[in-house]
Design goal:
Strand content: 5-15%
Structural class: mainly alpha
Shape: globular
Radius of gyration: 19 Å
Largest sheet: 2 strands, antiparallel
Number of helices: 5
Strand order of the largest sheet: 1-2
Order of helices and strands: HHHHEEH
Number of strands: 2
Distance between the termini: 60 Å
Length: 179
Amino acid sequence: SVVFHNVVLVIQILEIIMNMCALFFLLIKKNEFQQRLLIFMCFAAAVYNVALLGEILPFTNFNLIYYAKCVETIAVGMFQIPFIMFCFQYVGKSINIWILRALMFVYGIISFEQFFDLGRGLHYKSITYIESSVFPRIEVELGVLGICFWVLMVFGPIILELCVLGYGMYREKERARRM
């Protein structure tokens, strides 16, 4: 219904305002490395929220909604690399810079490829425009590069982050047990 759609829009706009406030408060302080990573993650979350808002606004232009979806996908991956660095920093370990560079390279290629993929089927196998008076949107079926993106830049990093944080918790538990 129209009321539900308007409530979702208001919630999304409030979320963007809260992200911007968090960014402002983080930026006015002197920042250490971990804080700078958090600022970058907060910025990525703000970009994601703005793109999501662009996707759910009642636009009828397919290309506008498609490019909002592309920016939304880029923001999802943009969040992961600083969070991996943050997790390693948190547990007192370092990650090889070449692993980060390789992830950024793959992320950059696959992310920006989607902007030029319209109709080719590499990133999105099919794109369906759902024209609804309340909530026009696109539904996508992932292609080969879309699946690679989600595996390499979303699910893979999440599993890595959970393993690193689990290792840190295990190490803290062992340290506490020895004392």
